Amino acid sequence: MEKKEITQKEVEDYILKGMTDALLNEKIFTVDFTKPIEALGGKVKPTMLADALRNLQEAKMINVRMPNGAGQGIGKD
């Protein structure tokens, strides 16, 4: 089966849905930047996750906080 190209919008929607489901079910939604994740029928690269989180934060849809040094430079060219 052929893997489809995953769009940035699909990753952002995946994150928002995961966070919403976690809130409604009182669970924790975790995004792991150390490895690609299997989602949306293909591999989502850590840089795409970082870009999606940054885009959502800039749109004021989420608030992301990381410990000092965590994620520095991830997803930036």
Residues in helix, % = 25-40%
> Strand percentage, roughly?
5-15%
Instruction: Tell me how many strands there are.
Output: 2
Q: What letter string, H or E per element, gives the SSE order?
A: HEEH
Q: Decide which structural class fits the backbone.
A: mainly alpha
SS element count, helices: 2
Average the pLDDT over all residues and give the rounded result.
Answer: 78
Distance between the termini: 31 Å
Q: Please outline the major beta sheet.
A: 2 strands, antiparallel
Poorly predicted runs are none
Strand order, largest beta sheet = 1-2
What's the shape?
globular
Cα Rg? 13 Å
Describe the structure.
- This protein is mainly α.
- It has a domain at 8-58.
- Helix content is 39%, strand content 8%.
- The protein contains two helices and two strands; from the N terminus they run H-E-E-H.
- The chain has helices at 8-24, 46-58, and strands spanning 37-39, 42-44.
- A two-stranded antiparallel ribbon has the order 1-2.
- Strand 1 (37-39) and strand 2 form a beta hairpin.
- Helix 1 crosses helix 2 (46-58).
- The model has no long low-confidence stretch (mean pLDDT 78).
Entry summary:
The protein is mainly α. It is built from two helices and two strands; from the N terminus they run αββα. It has a domain at 8-58.
Layout of strands and helices, then pairs:
Elements: H1 8-24, E1 37-39, E2 42-44, H2 46-58
Antiparallel strand pairs: 1-2
Defining traits:
single chain; 77 residues; mainly alpha; two-stranded antiparallel ribbon; globular
